[in-house]
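Internal tracking record. Fields below are filled automatically when a chain is submitted to the structure queue. Please do not edit lines marked as system-generated. If the sequence contains nonstandard residues, flag them in the REMARKS field before resubmitting.
Queue: standard
Priority: normal
Entity type: single polypeptide chain
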Amino acid sequence: MLIPFCVLACKNMFLQLFIFEFLPCLQPRWRRLNLTLWVVWGGFAFSYFATILTITRIFDKDDDGRIDFDYVAIFISSASEFFGTALAITLVDRIGE
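SYSTEM-GENERATED OUTPUT FOLLOWS
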């Protein structure tokens, strides 16, 4: 790949990073893989934060105004996150190689 002189003379580090690190990811050879990874990563991030925001509804107020703690639900959600993370690590180790 030929590097234009104007890029070499550029003192803006962000522009250099964009040109040398980001743009090669969008070359036809890597485009499909990278876009798939971005969609999957964004989907997991959105799902994770939506789940965390939904879990906060466990701390609901009763009709009397008292806060009702459902400790069993909190334990299940914490345990499922632990086991989900362990499963993800295992799958990445086995399938990812």
